[in-house]
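Protein in question quoted in full.
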Amino acid sequence: MRRIMNIFLVAVICLATAGVGTARTGETIVIKGSTTVLPVAQGAAEAYMKLHPDINISISGGGSGNGIKALVDKSTDIATSSRFVKDKEIEMSTAKGVYPVPHRVAIDAIVPIVHSENPVGDLTIEQLSLIYQGKIRNWKEVGGQDLQIVVVSRDTSSGTYEVWEEKVLHKAKVFPRAQLQASNGAVIQAVSKNRYAIGYIGFGYLNKTVKALTVGGVEASVETALSGVYPVARPLFMFTNGWPTGTVSSFINFIVSREGQEIVTKEGFIPLF
């Protein structure tokens, strides 16, 4: 395991110094994984293909865990993930001769959301944890109206769910009666149509159909996420099997370039610099 983690450390260091790879005519890059990273991947792919008309990029979502599984199965060139690879995934990968190398492509903040008519504007990490464990069940317990809380969560294949579980629930279990959704968009739709509901989404998915809450008095923003002041922020990744070469290397270097990071900002996420 120590050898595997050393590979990760070397990969992270190399990312800062790697040269731009050369795109090869007529190739297809396959990208699978996180629905949170999906807008970044799609925006970058569209811009990259304009620069390299002979390159095709195929993108699909399905969750961070599914993306990493696809990398292990060698059915994708790039796995997008809104969390870091797990120890058990490293073990499974190396058993099949696959060495997932992380490439940080953006920063995200996970934002709790409620219905636009909900008077509650701020919740602490402890209050969010108790709500998602089902120990706080009425909005009046946190300064709201006398209404039962409808808990909306991402499903367990989601990297966003796993980060929420770590940073908010501290590994406690989500309320069994929570409504599980497969994507950020599905969470927004569920919350926007139910004045009792609470959910959480990636920063880049925020829109006017729902109300974003502050967490412990801190608003999610570029500044608070980059500084670490906002308590539920995380990096977004693309994983490759070993250090990438050729077209895959060229594409990832494009994303972490200034032009690529402008696309990250355009898609509503937080750039690396």
User: Anything to note?
Assistant: The radius of gyration is 19 Å. The chain has two domains: 2-107+235-266, 109-227. DSSP finds ten helices and eleven strands in the chain.
